[in-house]
């Protein structure tokens, strides 16, 4: 809560007036009809990068959106109704509850079918300044909208369409703002007002935003280092600068943490050394006991006579060799007999040819 006490209202108002004067001069010099109003944002610089990402909803006392902005509402598909019938049903519901400012209603079925191509999604993103969705279909939207909605920070804000105070809830969502604290850097920005508002209204919105951010940030110790206000085309003007005493507090905390870690590590090392020493002593005792028991149990080994292997007679091998030697002889004889028989046949044929035929 130190940031709230140190935020000087007069200093904030001076910065707002200077910013508005700069925007008026620029608009009159360049193109007065292109950008009638510009967004005024708060830029927070933190002392440390947060460990976890966080989204903070900030209610504002004065609406930070102009009447010319286009707002789109995504609704669920009502049972036993077509897409046109669901559009009529929710238009009638918003009129009955007194909700104003919503320019178009798109059921979930229409979003799936008509806005499936990439070009249609980009066109939808450019046509509207703010998107609101029924909280009953919020988990189904990311896969159908695409990453460009989230990169441009135009992801739909959830609203309970079944609540009794529907007009109040939608008005808070439309005229409020949100701050996205990421764990990738120490700077974050939230839209707080527009250039068409009065200086007192802008200062009140800035004070309310700083108060809610300080109370809802999940960080310990000094949190915010710097706060600036800026528009889309201007330089950032400082509104709050923290004391250097916060830096000494952070340094002392960072110095304490390594000492605590060292003490804890030394305690762990001592306990581990003790456990190792006890284990080694127990192991030595067990070894000594095992040796003594083995010496008692050992007996004198008995001598066993070694049996010499008996050699078998080589008669069979010799007989096999003799058979092998005798085997080729009859083969030779047979070859000789075959040759003789062939010669005899040839001679007989010759003899038969020489005998003359008798008529």
Automatic annotation (TrEMBL):
Residues 258-284, 309-318 have a biased composition (Basic and acidic residues). It comes from the Eukaryota. InterPro entries: eL8/uL1-like, Ribosomal_uL1-like, Ribosomal_uL1/biogenesis, Ribosomal_uL1_3-a/b-sand. Keywords: Acetylation, Coiled coil, Isopeptide bond, Nucleus, Phosphoprotein, Ubl conjugation. Residues 251-359 are annotated as: Disordered. One of its GO terms (cellular component) is nucleolus. GO terms for molecular function: RNA binding. It is found in: Nucleus, Nucleolus. Transmembrane segments: none annotated. Regulates cellular senescence through inhibition of PTEN translation. Acts as a pro-apoptotic regulator in response to DNA damage. Belongs to the universal ribosomal protein uL1 family. Highly divergent. This is Ribosomal L1 domain-containing protein 1.
